[in-house]
Amino acid sequence: MEQSKIVKYGNELYDSLKSCNVIEPLTSRETDITIEDAYAIQDVLIKKRIKEDGSKIIGKKIGVTSKVVMDMLGVNQPDFGYLLSDMIYSDGDEIYVTNKMIQPKAEGEIAFVLKEDLMGPGVTTADVLRATKFVMPCFEIVDSRIKDWKIKIQDTVADNASCGYIVFGGKSVDPRDIDLTTCGITLERNGELLHTGAGAAALGSPVNAVAWLANTLGEFGVGLKAGEVILSGALCAMVTIEPGDNITINIGGIGSATCRFI
Hints:
This protein has 262 residues and is α+β, with helices and mostly antiparallel strands. It has helices spanning 3-19, 26-29, 35-53, 67-73, 125-131, 153-158, 206-218; strands spanning 57-63, 79-84, 88-90, 94-95, 104-114, 132-143, 163-168, 184-189, 192-198, 229-231, 239-240, 246-251, 255-261. The model has no long low-confidence stretch (mean pLDDT 94).
């Protein structure tokens, strides 16, 4: 794709984010758009947010880690995006839906906070555990700037992997003290249990997902850095959220996270 189009679509996604107005899928307008094109558009979007909003990169996220979502998007690998400083909320915070988001959904994940750099290729799960300071329960509030969530993999990649906001739980644990593969998760909305899952939903284990990210980024000379937060992928199905909703996740051996949408 021509650089002028890459810049155009990156700016269009930024404008959509700021105005809370949806845009038509990029894949419906550029039928030959590649994954590489999409990551180049994502780069324009992230640099625009850093320049215009004063945002700072604080970590990275992994998306499309479950087979169901891979099948939906017609791909056989996850994708990634960036976490920015203006995305963060704490356990129990209130989040405005109407003037900050477009078509949000919530999913429960495990966040890894690193104490050492991880640079692929060749990163193993043992390397991930050694480099992790602690893990935390969290919500990723995903939000697509693409109309009606009619996305293909290129659309979500360009849109920073459909990332919206992050809500961190109030507890952290050493990942070596729990089994991240079998730990269970429950997701409740307004007191009603909607979904359950387990760590294995994220590429067999959240640790596998972080290793995948380190090795994938390593091919481009990009590493995971000490102090960064890494979201390892959804452990159960996501839920649509509306003003007035209270959402809670509990992850066995790790803790809980709660947020209210207004």
